[in-house]
Amino acid sequence: xxxxxxxxxxxxxxxxxxxxxxxxxxxxxxxxxxxxxxxxxxxxxxxxxxxxxxxxxxxxxxxxxxxxxxxxxxxxxxxxxxxxxxxxxxxxxxxxxxxxxxxxxxxxxxxxxxxxxxxxxxxxxxxxxxxxxxxxxxxxxxxxxxxxxxxxxxxxxxxxxxxxxxxxx
Length: 169
Hints:
This protein is of the alpha/beta class. It is built from 5 helices and 8 strands, in the order H-E-H-E-E-H-E-H-E-E-E-H-E. Strand 6 and strand 7 form a beta hairpin.
């Protein structure tokens, strides 16, 4: 496995290469959804909540949903078949597997999961056109990038991941 991970600029370049339309807004570092939302006030779409989780067998999950979705880890564990429930994975594992730091968890991190060790779990509303755009951090928490649901599907396909799509609503 390559130890070189794709960062923000390489990600944005790769998205452009794949003809994926994005808009990126630069802003001060944010560590919570509440801190990020003011930077997107007049933008179409929905900011995403992203959680990097593990189960008792140390299987890894990247879970993404609308920022205001109610997420109960016990319920989510049942939906994804996680053995022994779900808990947050260590930040060192996040950096090793997805190449991102705590506070910057994003669907775009799967571009660095070349060994397919992380199961991507998405709330269906991120893919079904409920929102015209979905906003994620582009590998850093000092910017936020929009992507359409159809382009999100393209991105996931290009990274050779098969998401588990669940319904939280």
